[in-house]
Amino acid sequence: MMKPLQIALDGPAGAGKSTIAKTLAKKLGYVYIDTGAIYRAVTYRALNEHVGLEDGPALAAMIAEMDLRLVPSESGQRVFDGATEVTDLIRSSEVTNNVSFVARQPEVRDALMDLQRDLAKEGGIVMDGRDIGTHVLPGADLKVFMTATVEERARRRHDENVSKGLPSDLEQLQREIALRDKRDSEREVAPLRQADDAHYLDTTKLSIDGVVEAIERLMKQVVKR
Q1: How many domains does the chain have?
Q2: Is 18 annotated as a binding residue?
Q3: Which residue among 16, 21, 44, 65 is least enclosed by CB atoms within 10 Å?
Q4: Structural domain of residue 168, as residue ranges?
Q5: What is the pLDDT of residues 79-126, one digit of tens each?
Q6: pLDDT tens-digit profile of 42-82?
Q7: Is residue 225 part of a domain?
């Protein structure tokens, strides 16, 4: 029997990390940890409470008062801040366009680091984000850096928005994703980059099942070491 692993999926916005992480975790019977949702929840609260998005100390103080919880359910992972469910609220365009500012504050990353590592310590988890393999779980058993072209990532996000009945502009999404890539890769703290020991996986032309199968093959290689 394969030992429970820590699997880290990193990559730029729209690379399909969350979809793959959820699908893979369900197939393996693992726990899915959506770190992006954690940062989104912090951003959502900061916007509501008018806390400066680049004021690291103020954001850290705010986080200390939050009770962030990720709750698995049949319909997917639910996100709570105390008794308030924010699962859908944190997916607004306003949060999406501002989360990079919050995520690049060192005080924020430090405040959330222990939470993320504690969730992963027993293994049997799939965690996705921008810096999981390089910063959050540098000792993860398997690291995969997922990417796709900007055009493909924008198309996926556009299709998702349309399927949910949300307004969506494909060209605007391309611009926003390209800008998000730039912000994430150029930030001083834990920038978006591929870990030296991560496997590169271009998902542009792969189906969800195809990506999951590719990662499962990598898992078998890890166990054989």
Answers
A1: 1
A2: yes
A3: 65
A4: 6-216
A5: 999 999 999 999 998 999 999 999 989 999 999 998 889 889 889 999
A6: 999 999 999 999 999 999 999 999 998 888 777 777 899 99
A7: no
Rounded Cα–Cα distance for residues 129 and 131 (Å): 6
Which residues are CB-contacts of 65 (< 8 A; sequence separation ≥ 6)? none
Asked if residue 143 is part of any domain, the answer here is yes
Q: Is the pTM higher than 0.85?
A: no
Whether residue 120 is annotated as binding a ligand: the answer is no
76 in a labelled binding site: no
In a domain, 33, yes or no: yes
Query: Is 58 flagged in the annotation as binding?
Result: no
The answer, yes or no, to whether residue 225 has pLDDT greater than 70, is no
Percent of the chain whose pLDDT exceeds 90: 69
- CATH number (domain holding residue 15): 3.40.50.300
Tokens of 81: 């801040």
13 is in an annotated binding site: yes
Q: Is 106 annotated as a binding residue?
A: no
Whether 1 is in a domain gets the answer: no
**Residue 15 labelled as part of a binding site:** yes
pLDDT 10s digits, 122-149: 899 999 988 899 999 999 999 999 999 9
